[in-house]
Amino acid sequence: MALLPIYETPDPILREISTPVEKVDDEVRALIKDMFETMYAAPGIGLAAVQVGIPKRLLVMDLQEPEDPDDPESKPVREPRVFINPEILAHSDHEVPYTEGCLSVPDQYAEVMRPDKIRARWLDEHGKSHEQDLEGLLAVCLQHEMDHLEGVLFIDHLSKLKRDMVLKKLAKARKERGLRAA
Ligand code: GNR
Ligand code: NI
Fold it and tell me: What is the pTM for the complete model shown?
């Protein structure tokens, strides 16, 4: 059991292209376990291996959606998902906005447009292949995580003006945190 360090922008590791997982073995499964622990502690709904400094094509996700969709205060249901060497086989032409955040761009949120439906293929933690049509938050989150595998952050989808605004707010928040700690 271990919490892993989460790398934040502008760390150059986040710009690396992740390489395929060659073999889904116990070492990979141990990393997956630590990634879930790190993701739940953060807390976040997804985490790509490169965010913890390991540029491999591997990500974990748990949308932790409330038990009762009409009551956001109801207990979140845990549904851990693992995606190894994921591929997007097709996506709809229709794009929808979603307000995204990222553990590597802490406490900053902005609306990103992405295709609302995708067909994806991936391996699970046992090396078994899956192919499925995905939509909603699951499709948004998988696209966000798969961007990480290509060294792309959600802020890269924004206009330069909006991206600079987010980065300025992040710098300000870090500066204030630093002043409080001093
Ligand atoms: O925790 C996260 N929330 C989130 C919200 C909207 C769209 C994407 C995400 S993923 C993010 C965790 C993260 O940084 N994953 O890479
Ligand atoms: Ni992210």
Answer: 0.96
CATH number (domain holding residue 89): 3.90.45.10
Q: Is residue 166 part of a domain?
A: yes
pLDDT (tens digit, 9 = 90+) per residue, 132-158? 999 999 999 999 999 999 999 999 999
Point out the annotated binding site: 102, 144, 148
Question: How confident is the model at residue 49, as a pLDDT?
Answer: 99
Q: Is residue 125 annotated as part of the catalytic site, yes or no?
A: no
- For residue 99, count CB atoms less than 10 angstroms from its CB and return exposed for 0-12, middle for 13-18, buried for 19 or more: exposed
Give the atom of ligand 1 at the shortest distance from the alpha carbon of 145. 16
Q: Which atom of ligand 1 is nearest to the CA of 112?
A: 7
Phi-psi region of 148 (alpha: psi -120 to 50; beta: other; left: phi over 0): alpha
* Marked catalytic residue, from 79, 145, 150, 176: 145
* Binding-site positions for Fe cation: 102, 144, 148
pLDDT at 69: 86
